[in-house]
């Protein structure tokens, strides 16, 4: 059931959102330690230029195709991915599971005010989640004390919102020191959950142009998004290479 589609060296799990959640649910219930990465074209390009980060991604148990760019690339390469699986939606699905199963969840990342707002939202929407603890994301990420502090609470799930590559580095260290739990890097998701950043309107989501919407709302993202044309160029280079072989 779980096939992989490799895009510029990154092996994506070719599963629908439902299948991802089912697989995660099974691992949660069997107590298996799980590293979930949700990767968009920016992450793929970053991993291409940074071998240490690439190695971190290779430790992941699941890599979800976050963003329409990955899905389009998979089609262009002739190895279509079933659907895009936005990190934000996987997080909502996991919170739903945590609520139903009364699981212990830790939240770490974002600014102090945002994490406080995120926690009140979680309490409102998913009252049966046990909040293992929470912390803002502006501390020294290399400090082992934070890992010790989180570890003591034995969370079943931990959401880490530092943005890439910081969150994956921290998760890798964290998972090397615990023996259970699902850990996932969720980028700017707390900003959305807290209401600070609005998710794109439904119509924009439908037409798969959230990237354009975000760019207009937050022009500061331009520099980061400027890797997208390079991503497309690399995909077409790969396609040509595949044809020759
Ligand atoms: N962030 C953090 N600690 C840091 C840097 C960033 O907690 O040292 C948070 C930031 O407040 C935001 C989230 O990480 O909530 C995502 O940041 P960014 O937009 O830079 O990353 P992306 O969404 O592109 O992964």
TrEMBL record:
<dbReference type="GO" id="GO:0071555">
    <property type="term" value="P:cell wall organization"/>
</dbReference>
<keyword id="KW-0961">Cell wall biogenesis/degradation</keyword>
<keyword id="KW-0777">Teichoic acid biosynthesis</keyword>
<dbReference type="InterPro" id="IPR034714">
    <property type="entry name" value="TagA_TarA"/>
</dbReference>
<dbReference type="Pfam" id="PF03808">
    <property type="entry name" value="Glyco_tran_WecG"/>
</dbReference>
<keyword id="KW-0808">Transferase</keyword>
<dbReference type="InterPro" id="IPR004629">
    <property type="entry name" value="WecG_TagA_CpsF"/>
</dbReference>
<keyword id="KW-0328">Glycosyltransferase</keyword>
<comment type="pathway">
    <text>Cell wall biogenesis; teichoic acid biosynthesis.</text>
</comment>
<comment type="similarity">
    <text>Belongs to the glycosyltransferase 26 family. TagA/TarA subfamily.</text>
</comment>
<protein>
    <recommendedName>
        <fullName>N-acetylglucosaminyldiphosphoundecaprenol N-acetyl-beta-D-mannosaminyltransferase</fullName>
        <ecNumber>2.4.1.187</ecNumber>
    </recommendedName>
</protein>
<dbReference type="GO" id="GO:0047244">
    <property type="term" value="F:N-acetylglucosaminyldiphosphoundecaprenol N-acetyl-beta-D-mannosaminyltransferase activity"/>
</dbReference>
<comment type="function">
    <text>Catalyzes the conversion of GlcNAc-PP-undecaprenol into ManNAc-GlcNAc-PP-undecaprenol, the first committed lipid intermediate in the de novo synthesis of teichoic acid.</text>
</comment>
<dbReference type="GO" id="GO:0019350">
    <property type="term" value="P:teichoic acid biosynthetic process"/>
</dbReference>
């Amino acid at each position: 059931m779980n096939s992989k589609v490799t895009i510029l060296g990154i092996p994506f799990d070719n599963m629908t959102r439902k299948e991802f959640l089912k697989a995660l649910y099974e691992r949660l219930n069997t107590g298996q330690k799980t590293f979930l990465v949700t990767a968009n074209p920016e992450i793929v390009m970053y991993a291409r230029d940074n071998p240490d980060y690439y190695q971190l991604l290779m430790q992941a148990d699941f890599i979800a195709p976050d963003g329409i760019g990955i899905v389009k690339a998979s089609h262009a390469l002739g190895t279509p991915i079933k659907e895009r699986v936005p990190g934000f939606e996987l997080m909502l699905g996991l919170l739903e599971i945590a609520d139903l199963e009364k699981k212990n969840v830790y939240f770490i990342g974002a600014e102090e005010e945002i994490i406080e707002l995120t926690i009140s939202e979680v309490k409102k929407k998913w009252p049966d989640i046990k909040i293992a603890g929470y912390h803002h994301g502006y501390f020294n990420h290399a400090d082992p004390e934070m890992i010790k502090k989180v570890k003591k609470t034995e969370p079943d799930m931990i959401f880490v919102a530092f943005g890439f590559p910081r969150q994956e580095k921290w998760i890798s260290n964290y998972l090397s020191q615990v023996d259970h739990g699902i850990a996932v890097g969720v980028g700017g998701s707390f900003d959305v959950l807290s209401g600070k950043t609005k998710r794109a309107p439904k119509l924009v989501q439908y037409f798969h142009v959230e990237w354009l919407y975000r760019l207009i709302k937050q022009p500061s993202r331009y520099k980061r998004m400027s890797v997208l044309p390079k991503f497309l160029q690399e995909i077409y280079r790969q396609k040509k290479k595949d044809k020759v072989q």
